[in-house]
Design brief:
This protein is mostly helical. It has 13 helices and two strands.
Length: 316
């Protein structure tokens, strides 16, 4: 069966859109993996994404350089994560309450700063986007060029981050210690490793990656910050993390799956105009399927010591 040219173009568009929609989810899910594999629940990923999206635009606005904007995003997300780490690791605070506080703070702070910096509500001024990566040979190949010919470099960073995360998690001493902090922190402490330090670093990494995911929304895919623009993507990333079994490859596959669901509803809206009156319902499809997918996970086992405060053992 041979597809007509329009169908080929639309399939290429669907694949490219899936990559674009998956990128912030996968980056944020990978960040959540570092936090939760160390034993710290991080439902605050939504807030870290949001403040990263804002930091990217603010940094770009003041420096006129979107690459510096990315640095602002990573630092913003990491700073908010550090606060979450101090509350949960040092002060032994409740992980869910702290994560909720992170989300509320990010929502309020970014809304306030929109008015302080730009004097507007809702959206910031447009800023420079991170330049698209155009691969000369690839961009001219039919179908393949439609997908990979012009993409944000953050999309490629996402794939690179998956590889690095896998190597760090499973092939380095730090990764072994991080996993031990979430599985058996007393054994890690007995080996002379500071459990609290490992957990704090894991949480900060999660915020940095979530901030990068937020930056993709504001200066990678778009060119401005919008109030509450993450729209629940941090929670979907958390679902992808759980669905993917708290692993780098699993997070990639699950994040791509949820990104595809989002892209598919957009594809339906474009290709079947008769369904436009039902667009609000169609936009619900990815979230409904997220719930269904999570309900079918079965016995996805989290780290044994997750959300369990660790008290350093006293040695004689």
């Amino acid at each position: 069966m041979q597809l007509d040219p329009f169908s080929v173009v639309m399939i290429a568009w669907l694949i490219k859109t899936t990559l674009q929609f998956s990128t912030p989810l996968v980056l944020t899910a990978l960040g959540g993996m570092f936090s939760e594999r160390s034993g710290i629940v991080n439902i605050g990923l939504e807030g870290m994404m949001l403040i990263g999206a804002f930091g990217a635009v603010a940094g770009t606005y003041y420096t006129s350089n979107p690459w510096i904007g990315l640095v602002f995003a990573v630092v913003s997300g990491g700073t908010l994560a550090a606060i979450h780490a101090i509350i949960t690791v040092k002060l032994k605070g409740d992980h869910i309450v702290s994560g909720t506080g992170v989300i509320l703070f990010a929502a309020g702070f970014t809304t306030l700063m929109l008015e302080v910096i730009w004097g507007t509500r809702g959206y910031s001024e447009e800023v420079a986007r991170v330049p698209q990566v155009v691969i000369p040979g690839i961009s001219e190949i039919p179908f393949v060029g439609d997908i990979f010919g012009s993409l944000s470099p953050i999309v490629y960073m996402m794939f690179f981050t998956v590889i690095i995360s896998w190597l760090v998690m499973y092939k380095t001493p730090f990764g072994l210690r991080l996993r031990a902090a979430g599985e058996d922190p007393s054994a890690l402490d007995s080996a002379g490793v500071n459990v609290e330090t490992i957990r704090i670093v894991g949480v900060i990494i999660s915020g940095c990656l979530a901030g990068l995911g937020g930056a993709y929304l504001s200066i990678g895919y778009g060119a401005r910050f919008g109030e509450l623009m993450t729209s629940g993507r941090g929670f979907i990333a958390l679902a992808a993390l759980i669905f993917g079994g708290w692993s780098p490859i699993g997070s990639l596959l699950a994040g791509t799956f949820f990104g595809f669901l989002d892209a598919f509803q957009a594809y339906i809206s474009l290709t079947i105009p008769s369904l436009l009156p039902y667009n609000n319902f169609i936009q619900m499809i990815p979230y409904i399927l997220v719930v269904i997918a999570l309900a079918g996970i079965g016995r996805s086992r989290p780290p044994k010591a997750i959300a369990v405060p660790y008290e350093k053992e006293k040695r004689a």
